[in-house]
Amino acid sequence: MTDLMWSSEIYESIQDAKTVSAEPQTDARELRNTLGNFATGVTVLTYQSGDSFYGVTVNSFTSVSMDPPLVLVSLTRKSRALTYLLERPFAINVLGDAQLQTALQFAGKPQDGYPIEWITNDGAPRISGSLAHFQCTPWAGYDGGDHILVLGRVLSFGQQDATKPLVFYRGRWSALATDEDEG
Ligand SMILES: Cc1cc2nc3c(=O)[nH]c(=O)nc-3n(C[C@H](O)[C@H](O)[C@H](O)COP(=O)(O)O)c2cc1C
Question: CA 163, 46, 33 angle in degrees (round to 5)?
Fold first, then answer.
């Protein structure tokens, strides 16, 4: 045993560690708060139903596979979007730091009079001004407890350089500090 392993700092962090309770709901808020330490970008999944365009704000987006090209989002079973996303093309829009209102709009907080500019000529409707986008077709859906893991196969994609990402961290909106900021 080295001194380092028994430093008070490490001992205290072990003391702080939580075991997930056998009662699933007991520590749910604390678990959610602790998971919130993982800073993420923010995306909006967009799709068409009838003549209307819809979106849902999602930060569970992750890349999965290069061959075939697959990405994943985790959607609550309560999501209205779920039934659509398992059966039709959808776009994943990675939001830039000027798109906070877009994130709110599609997270169930309508922004009165805030215009969403749609691009409709390359697959599912997608949101103009986004940092990056991925046009997807559903690949698979898997059981994820109270969520469904939706895998999409990427059909096309694009990005723009002059934008920084919108960031979500500890339940708050944030922006990315880069080494360019230090001048
Ligand atoms: C930053 C942020 C991230 C979110 N990420 C997810 C997510 O990964 N999965 C999910 O199901 N809902 C997520 N939500 C919640 C949905 O955006 C919200 O419940 C939305 O109203 C669902 O719309 P729908 O019922 O039309 O699908 C997130 C909300 C916010 C603000």
Answer: 70
| CB contact burial 68-81 (16+ within 10 A = b; e otherwise) | ebbbbbbbeeebeb
Domains of the chain: 39-164 (2.30.110.10)
Cα(172) to ligand 1 centroid in Å equals: 14
Q: How high is the pLDDT of residue 93? A: 98
Instruction: Say how far apart CA 74 and CA 138 lie, in whole Å.
Output: 13
C-alpha 5 – ligand 1 centre gap (Å): 41
Q: What percent of the chain has pLDDT over 70?
A: 84
The pLDDT assigned to 83 comes to 87
pLDDT mean over 108-122: 95
pTM: 0.87
Task: Check if 174 has its Cβ closer than 6 Å to any atom of ligand 1.
Answer: no
